Structures are given as structure tokens and as C-alpha cells.
Amino acid sequence: xxxxxxxxxxxxxxxxxxxxxxxxxxxxxxxxxxxxxxxxxxxxxxxxxxxxxxxxxxxxxxxxxxxxxxxxxxxx
Length: 76
Known about the structure:
This protein has 76 residues and is of the alpha+beta class. It has 2 helices and 4 strands, in the order ββββαα.
């Protein structure tokens, strides 16, 4: 299992002239046959298709399939 800690970011909202803060997040990822199965059943292509490769959207979705903890925002 891989655990990735994503720190929160500080930004400036020009519309409201206020600082905005993103919440930190922790991703717990596990590359497994279950996550591969979830991904392949959604996309209907083999994950390791060397001929065509993966699109950025497909790769991002695979990270979602590997994520063990619930409630992680897509921005993370």
C-alpha cells in the first residue's frame, strides 16, 4: 500500500479579495487485481494495452480505482 499526503494550498480569490485554503488530503492507494478489474469493467480495454497507451483521463480514473479511503475530493 502507498500513502500519499497532499498538503493544503493557499490561494487568493480576486472576486472576494480573500485568501482561500484547500484542505489537505491523504490518499491510500493499492494496486491490485480488484482495482484493475474495476477500471477495465468501466473502460472496456486492457489496462496494460501497450499499443494505444492510456489517456490522462483513464490514468486519473485508475488512481480513483486504487484509492482505498472514501471521501477524497477529485482535486486531490
